[in-house]
Amino acid sequence: MKKLLPIILIMTGSYAMAQEKSSSSALSVRLNAYTTYAFDDNHVDSYYSTTSYFTGKVLGGFQYGGSLEIIPFSREGFELSYLRLDSKAPMEYYNAGIQYTNFDLNQNWLMLGSNRYFKINSHLEPYAGLQLGMEIIGVTNPDNLVKNSATKFAWGIKAGVNVWATDKIGIKIQTSLLSAVQAIGGSFYFGTGGAGAGATSYSTYYQFSVGGGLVFNIK
After folding, report:
1. What is the pTM of this model?
2. What pLDDT is attached to residue 132?
């Protein structure tokens, strides 16, 4: 019996490790629905000269979207997400004199990210993540209905917690920061709505948001 005891312990330990490894590598697929409030970025500008510039801010608002997330391991997920925000951009600029316009702005974020999970129990699942991707920005001058658009590199960070009501449906609480790098300037010009001749400086802007949504475990 004494000789069998070490063998039993080894077999038991190996089985437990195998079960843990199998559990940690079980594939999970989730759908996430987001509704958050994005705050203003109070200063963006592009300055070339006293007759070629704009300065103002990008307003926040309600941001919505969704994502598909694949979790090949229990603590690591990979997420493809889309977010939309329609807001305003009040700007001062020069066009045959100093002008003021409240531009219509739409922002479309397409991001690929990685999330790290820190599961506490079957109901609470905190997480943090990093994102990289692009923002497609559209601007319309309401004075003359001239439109312009740009696609820029973007990055983001986020943190939150999933509160699971069942093993299939949960509530998501989240804070995040998204940034479009050098998004405002050059050919993307808040002025007449066309290309800003000579406007060579660029402005990166940031939008911090809070909110949440729903998470659905579909596999």
Report:
1. 0.80
2. 97
How far are the Cα atoms of 28, 83, 139, 141, 148 from residue 89, in angstroms, in the given order? 40, 18, 9, 10, 13
* Encoded amino acid at 29, one letter: V
Q: What is the C-alpha radius of gyration for the chain, rounded to an integer number of angstroms?
A: 24
Given a contact cutoff of 8 angstroms between Cβ atoms, the answer to whether 59 and 89 are in contact is yes
Q: Which residues pair with 172 in a beta bridge?
A: 162, 213
What type of residue is 155?
Answer: W
Residue type, 215: V
Query: What is the 8-class DSSP label of residue 59?
Result: -
**Which residue carries 């820029």 as its tokens?**
152
Distances (CA, A) of 152 to 102, 202, 204, 205: 22, 12, 10, 11
Q: Which token pair is 33?
A: 């629905």
> What separation in angstroms does the CA of 196 have from each of 43, 46, 148, 152, 153?
19, 10, 11, 17, 20
Segment 95-114, tens digit of pLDDT: 677 888 898 999 999 999 99
Q: Identify the CATH number of the domain defined by range 27-217.
A: 2.40.160.20
Read off the pLDDT of residues 51-86 as tens digits, 9 standing for 90 and up.
667 788 889 999 999 999 999 987 899 999 999 999
